[in-house]
């Protein structure tokens, strides 16, 4: 039996707690950007995932994602209900921490990923349909992709795909799915004709700060140990976020003649997204360049390609989809075994093939996530209807879906 390392175990559990905080932080980030009549609904989209996906993960999600391999495509049901997942280490995934520590750390990734999608359909999706969609999405999209990329025997992992903390598994799947959701649900009533200004930018900034804080668990925690690799991922995470924030805000300052607070928030998140797949494979200088490219490219896509054409309400595709795609590709450019001997060298270190592997992985995951999301949405729409009525949308989802309102001012 492998020996449990106390420091590694503490770090992974602490990182799991940090990643858990990211989901309600995402609720604040999204909640501040919607209109006042929809803030509770938006918060609930994230908060509810803590309950729904935590239960799904224990019952069968973890087994499908990381259980004994079946053909490189999915995990078996041998670990249903966490059977055979105990406190002894699993040498394949993390040899120095209890297996359940690895399981619950991965759970927090599974929790936040469907919550990310919710920003695309904010202010117009029926809550019952959201619940069914999220459960199906996590089961038929997240679990298989996590298995392909991260699990022992997963076919993309065997191909050599690198994804340190979820650029493909978390951000490309959620970002592409968000675009599909926005297209299938259609625009909000009045989109492009009436103002849909954020009701509380302060809330969004607080959410951004908490996301940045939690992201250290997301990326540095993916080292699965308290050592040099965790430090490297921690430094890279902060560096990319800072540079992307500067790049996005500066681009907006040039175009709109003012430095936007919301732009700074979006830029920081874009940098965090882009460095996620690369955090444990690249140097600090590479992380600055990744952040710079993420801030500039994601800004351009949001401002000039998506907004006004597709009602991706909270820019999920432009930030998470494009940022995740960019980061996953750039791993193939900047990765170096001098940072992580268990990884691979990228293009700049003389390994052209890694860039091809990364591009293939990005393409396969994007197509799979998009096609499956479209199918799930069509089935859910047929069974329940995915969109609220025009009257319910006008009333606001807080009241029409939950019978509550966020703010009661005065007597």
What does this structure look like?
This protein is an all-alpha fold and 411 residues long. The protein has helices at residues 6-31, 39-66, 99-117, 127-150, 155-159, 167-185, 201-219, 228-256, 261-275, 284-306, 316-334, 352-384, 390-395, 397-402; strands at 69-70, 74-75. A two-stranded antiparallel sheet has the order 1-2. A hairpin with a 3-residue loop joins strand 1 (69-70) and strand 2. Helix 11 runs antiparallel to helix 12. The radius of gyration is 20 Å and the shape is globular. The mean pLDDT is 97.
Spatial strand arrangement across the major sheet = 1-2
Could you give the order of the helices and strands? HHEEHHHHHHHHHHHH
What is the CA-CA span between the terminal residues? 64 Å
Provide the helix percentage: 55-70%
Rg from C-alpha positions? 20 Å
Helical stretch count?
A: 14
Shape: globular
Oligomer: single chain
Low-confidence stretches: none
| Biggest sheet record | 2 strands, antiparallel
Could you give the count of β-strands?
A: 2
- Give the mean pLDDT: 97
Strand content: under 5%
User: How does the helix and strand content classify structurally?
Assistant: mainly alpha
């Amino acid at each position: 039996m492998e020996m449990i390392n106390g420091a590694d175990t503490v770090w992974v559990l602490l990182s799991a707690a940090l990643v858990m905080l990211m989901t309600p932080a995402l609720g604040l980030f999204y909640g501040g950007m919607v209109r006042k009549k929809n803030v509770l609904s938006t918060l609930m989209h994230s908060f509810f995932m803590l309950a729904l996906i935590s239960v799904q993960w224990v019952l069968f999600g973890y087994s499908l994602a990381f259980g004994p391999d079946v053909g490189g495509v999915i995990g078996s049901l041998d670990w249903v209900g966490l059977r055979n997942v105990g406190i002894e280490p699993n040498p394949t995934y993390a040899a120095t921490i209890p297996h359940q520590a690895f399981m619950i750390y991965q759970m927090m990734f599974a929790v936040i990923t469907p919550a990310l999608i919710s920003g695309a359909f904010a202010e117009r999706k029926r809550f019952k349909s959201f619940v069914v969609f999220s459960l199906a999405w996590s089961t038929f999209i997240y679990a298989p992709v996590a298995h392909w990329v991260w699990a022992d025997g997963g076919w993309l992992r065997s191909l050599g795909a690198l994804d340190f903390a979820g650029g493909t598994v978390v951000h490309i799947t959620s970002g592409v799915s968000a675009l599909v959701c926005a297209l299938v649900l259609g625009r909000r009533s009045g989109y492009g004709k009436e103002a849909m200004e954020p009701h509380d930018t302060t809330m969004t900034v607080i959410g951004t700060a908490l996301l940045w804080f939690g992201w250290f668990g997301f990326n540095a925690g993916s080292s699965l140990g308290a050592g040099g690799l965790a430090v490297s991922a921690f430094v890279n995470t902060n560096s990319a976020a800072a540079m992307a924030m500067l790049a996005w805000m500066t681009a907006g300052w040039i175009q709109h003649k003012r430095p936007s607070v919301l732009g700074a928030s979006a830029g920081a998140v874009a940098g965090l997204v882009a460095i996620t797949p690369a955090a444990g494979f690249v140097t600090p200088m590479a992380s600055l360049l990744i952040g710079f490219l993420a801030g500039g490219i994601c800004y351009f896509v949001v401002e000039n390609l998506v907004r006004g054409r597709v009602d991706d309400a909270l820019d999920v595709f432009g930030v998470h989809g494009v940022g995740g795609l960019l980061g996953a590709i750039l791993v193939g450019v900047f990765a170096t075994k001098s940072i992580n001997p268990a990884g691979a060298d990228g293009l700049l270190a003389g390994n052209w093939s890694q860039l091809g592997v990364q591009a293939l992985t990005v393409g396969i995951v994007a197509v799979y996530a998009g096609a499956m999301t479209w199918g799930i949405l069509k089935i859910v729409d047929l069974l329940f209807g995915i969109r609220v009525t025009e009257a319910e949308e006008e009333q606001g989802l807080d009241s029409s879906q939950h019978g509550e309102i966020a703010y009661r001012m005065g007597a």
